[in-house]
Design goal:
seven-stranded mixed sheet
């Protein structure tokens, strides 16, 4: 019989998918900037045979739309680490982050450490602090959303839908502020601190928003085993190729164990 949660602890931060009974390890998937759980749910479904898989839902979107969005990385990562530690109920965890979600996943992994985190998997995002980028979150709507489209977070055809943009823009701006200000601070400090957690960096071979060398830069953020995985596809691997991504995650985590 299918169940919906592998833990008795419920939280507004985490949304599970149906699976056959609890697993030894839990996986938490952090979506890209401005997104909710729907963008990583297909991946969680594919991973549910090997892990208790949960999509991470941040404030300011979906069922948490009325809650203020988080814009300070240290505050968000502290909250997520505490919530996740309680939610996982003593089990080891795998943290997966897509695009900007990779930076959040890394910060949570840094707080939980190797005693709790079995592996960190990131996709389609440069290593935090490795690239200087001037913040764009405060730009006027046309310029800001143009950057969001260039980053692969929003289809260009939606730019004419003002009603939809009014809904999604606040979460996008908040997440951009969250990540851009944090990564600029890391860059100016000389980079992010490494964590003793095995790390896998994944990218799509047709993704024009990131280069392989930027994924390889994640090797400086871990003192554990590291590998880069290339998959067919573009910037939207969790939604366009969830089965391939899930297989790559499973194989990589097993190889790093």
């Amino acid at each position: 019989m299918l169940t919906c949660m592998g833990t008795h602890t419920k939280s507004p931060w985490f949304v599970g998918v149906p699976h056959d009974g609890p697993k030894e390890c839990a996986l938490y998937a952090f979506p890209h900037a401005g997104a909710g759980v729907t963008t990583v749910r297909p991946l969680c479904v594919e991973l549910s045979g090997a892990f208790d898989a949960f999509a991470v839902r941040l404030p300011g979107r979906e069922s948490r739309l009325e809650e203020p969005a988080e814009t300070v990385m240290a505050d968000l990562a502290d909250k997520l680490a505490g919530e996740l530690l309680h939610h996982a109920d003593g089990r080891p965890v795998v943290l997966y982050g897509h695009c900007a979600g990779s930076t959040i996943a890394y910060e949570v992994a840094r707080r939980l450490g190797p005693a709790r985190v079995r592996a960190l998997v990131v996709s389609s995002n440069p290593a935090p602090g490795s690239v200087r980028r001037e913040p764009t979150f405060a730009l006027p709507r046309p310029e800001f959303l143009g950057q969001v489209v260039a980053d692969g977070y929003l289809p260009a055809q939606l730019l004419g839908n003002e009603e939809l943009l009014d809904i999604v823009e606040p979460a996008l701006r908040a997440d951009y502020e969250l990540v851009e200000t944090h990564e600029l601070e890391l860059y100016e400090r000389g980079g992010a601190a490494p964590v003793a957690v095995p790390t896998v960096a994944v990218y799509g071979s047709d993704d024009h928003t990131v280069e392989r060398v930027q994924l390889e830069a994640w090797s400086a953020l871990t003192t554990g085993p590291f590998r880069v995985v290339s998959l067919p596809g573009g910037n939207d691997l969790p939604t366009s190729r969830p089965a391939d991504l899930a297989a790559a995650i499973g194989e990589a985590v097993a190889a790093l164990a």
